[in-house]
Structures are given as structure tokens and as C-alpha cells.
Amino acid sequence: MEAKNTKVVILCGGLGTRLREETEFRPKPMVEIGGRPMLWHIMKVFAHYGYSEFVLCLGYRGEMVKEYFLNYEAMNNDFSIQLGQKNQIEYHGGHTEDGWRITLVDTGKTSLTGSRLKKVKKFINEGDMFMLTYGDGVADINLNELLKFHKSHNKIGTVTGVHTPSRFGMLVSSGESVIQFSEKSLVSDGYISGGFFVFNHNIFDYIPEGDNCTLEKEPLENLAKDDELSVYHHQGFWQCMDTYRDHEYLQELWKNNEAKWKIWE
């Protein structure tokens, strides 16, 4: 399996209004867990499995994400600099993120999730599969198994289903096919969308132009109607960072060395 050929699209542009304590001054993916942005944690999970080519869909305060990666080498290495000489910087040591290729794309401050994805279409080669996730959720998911599952079902999309009492989108499935995708439904049992997707390039045919398409509504609902959406059942750890309580919970897990999503060394 050629992991290096599978790009990872991460939606990083939402306002994060339910986490206003942290997102008033920075985008939600830049809220820190254990001194590192949530976005970094998500990328580390993908990179652990060899998926290190990222496309970041920026929006609200996207300049903070750009600044973080522009300054990454200096902030994560010791270095010597010769003042008055441009580019005269010598880095000492290294970090374990060597080789990451990151494309940062301004997809608009008010664009909805489907529209953000549509706007990075030009960075996904025709015929390629790609992964997609949100910038606010972590899991100990085996991404190689997810991609293998997607390939074996020969459908346009695969969504990861997770078990948790929640307020998120409910999956109504039959076997390994999604027969209905209900966005933001209240459920106390069963599977919800865990937000780790694999798509074929044909997903873009389901997304109209403009800024007002929500991925979790018409595109995924229509994929389900057309029997083009599979569900990969993840039985392990999954947690989003949707509220301040979620943030505190993730912080506590990290502090106590109980962060199950930390699958890298």
C-alpha cells in the first residue's frame, strides 16, 4: 500500500463557537493539548502510519496556522543565526516531523465544510483517493486498515463509525453500507460519524460550487442514497474537542499519560 500517495485533507477553518473560551483568539485546531496544537496531534497520528502529505483547509484565523508551520523549524530546534545575513541560520538537532509536506489553503472565513473541501480539489490528483478529517478530533484508529477497507468496498466514500453517546451525526447502516446519514442527530446508542473519511475523487461531483455546502448534509446524504458510502467500525478510542469540557478531558488524559491516541514514539 503506497501510503505516500494518499493525501490527508484536514478541515481547519470553523469558528469553534462552543469552545469560545479558547477559540476567541485562535482557531480550534490550534488549541493546545499538552503544549501542542490539536492539529499537531492529529497529524502525528496520520504520520505514524506513513501519511505525511497534508492539505489544510484554512478559514477563521488561518494566518495563525500558517505562522505556526512557517516558524516550525525555529520553534522546535536549537539554532544559530548570523544577524544581518539573510537565511544564515544553522539548526542543531532535529525533530520527528521531518518529511512532512503541508499545503496550506485559504478556503474562506465563512465557507462551510463541503465548500472548503471543494476548494482544495486542485490539490488532489484526478483518480486519487484521499483521507479527510476534522481539526478537532483524535483516535487510536488504524489508518492502514481504514484505507484497506475502503479499497475493498469500491465505493466513493467511507466514514468511520464510532460508539459514543453524543449529539453528532448518526449513521444508519446495514452491514458495512450506510443507508442513511443523519447530520447532528441525538443518539444514546449506536454509531456516530467519527470524522475519519476516505474518498475517491468522485466525491467532488457531489459538492456544488460556492461557500454554502455542508459536507455532512447533501453530499454524504446523497452518497448514502446512492449506496456509495461505507462505514468502517472503529471500536477503540475516539474523542472530539467540541466544548471546554472536552478540552479539559483531553488535557487530563495527556497529563496522566493516558492519551490513547498517542500511538507514535
Describe the protein:
The protein is an alpha/beta fold and 265 residues long. Helix content is 25%, strand content 28%. Strands 7-4-1-8-13-10-14 form a seven-stranded mixed beta sheet. A two-stranded antiparallel sheet has the order 2-3. The model is unreliable at 184-189 (pLDDT under 50).
List the helices and strands and how they pair.
Layout: E1 7-12, H1 20-23, E2 32-33, E3 36-37, H2 38-48, E4 53-58, H3 62-70, H4 72-76, E5 78-81, E6 89-92, E7 101-106, H5 113-118, E8 130-134, E9 137-139, H6 143-153, E10 157-163, E11 170-174, E12 177-182, E13 191-199, H7 218-225, E14 229-234, E15 238-240, H8 244-255
Parallel strand pairs: 1-4, 1-8, 4-7, 10-14
Antiparallel strand pairs: 2-3, 5-6, 8-13, 9-15, 10-13, 11-12
Helix and strand succession? EHEEHEHHEEEHEEHEEEEHEEH
Principal-axis shape equals globular
Helical stretch tally: 8
| CATH class group | Alpha Beta
For the biggest β-sheet, the strand order reads: 7-4-1-8-13-10-14
The CATH homologous superfamily corresponds to: Spore Coat Polysaccharide Biosynthesis Protein SpsA, Chain A
Low-confidence stretches: 184-189
Mean pLDDT: 88
How many domains? The number is 1
Number of strands: 15
- What radius of gyration results from the CA coordinates? 19 Å
CATH level-two architecture: Alpha-Beta Complex
Portion in helices? 10-25%
Q: How much of the sequence is in beta strands?
A: 25-35%
CATH fold-level topology: Spore Coat Polysaccharide Biosynthesis Protein SpsA, Chain A
